[in-house]
Amino acid sequence: MSIEIKAVKRDVKGTGASRRLRRAGNVPGVVYGGDQAAVSIELDHKELFMQFRHEAFHASILSLVLDGKAESVLLRDYQLHPVRNTIQHIDFQRVSATEKIHVKVPFHFVNEEVAPGVKTGGGSISHIQTEADVSCLAKDLPEFIEVDLGNLEAGHAIHLSEIKLPKGIEFVQLAHGDDAAVVSIAKPRGGSDEAAEETPAA
């Protein structure tokens, strides 16, 4: 699914101009990268926010239509109003079809309710990481990465090296030798082992 956002070039810059833009229901922003100069842009807040609230907007190649011309970009930064939760500013980076990109992609955890460590072991799930930085070409970027807990026992964890990735994608952490844990199931407190230890011998 391609997410399309529309923008126009912003000629007037500065704090006062940005404030007037926001009052008019628009969002100031910038698009940069590639072999082109950075361009100041403005976007309709209502249209932008409808896309922004979806998870895929934050980890997908977006189609930015700027003055009628489409280009592929990634969301790189944004600022939210601390009270009103409106978008104050937004940055996009142009992407190349031939250069690898680094993007944080969310994890989707499946089969949590049937994991042996929960269903029969009585353990509790701990999400250690909810997203990870991946390296890939733009065409290979997934919206999310699935982590299957269907065989996870209590007292065990799933590490980055145990997660099956689509072709052409790698975890940046793992490439640097950091096989971090992503999710674990803690053993229940006061479980059968502890009870056995506390029961005096006859």
Automatic annotation (TrEMBL):
GO cellular component, alphabetical, reads: ribosome
On whether rRNA-binding is a keyword of this UniProt record, the answer is yes
Keyword presence, Glycosyltransferase? no
| Domain Large ribosomal subunit protein bL25 beta, chain residue ranges per copy | 100-189
Keywords on this record? Ribonucleoprotein, Ribosomal protein, RNA-binding, rRNA-binding
Q: Which CDD domains does the record associate with it?
A: Ribosomal_L25_TL5_CTC
- Every copy of the Large ribosomal subunit protein bL25 L25 domain together lies at 5-92
Assembly information from the UniProt record: Part of the 50S ribosomal subunit; part of the 5S rRNA/L5/L18/L25 subcomplex. Contacts the 5S rRNA. Binds to the 5S rRNA independently of L5 and L18.
Question: Function of this protein?
Answer: This is one of the proteins that binds to the 5S RNA in the ribosome where it forms part of the central protuberance.
What PANTHER family does the database record attribute to this sequence?
RIBOSOMAL PROTEIN L25/GLN-TRNA SYNTHETASE, ANTI-CODON-BINDING DOMAIN-CONTAINING PROTEIN, RIBOSOMAL PROTEIN L25_GLN-TRNA SYNTHETASE, ANTI-CODON-BINDING DOMAIN-CONTAINING PROTEIN
Q: Give the family from UniProt.
A: Belongs to the bacterial ribosomal protein bL25 family. CTC subfamily.
The entry's protein name is Large ribosomal subunit protein bL25
* Species for this entry: Methylophilus glucosoxydans
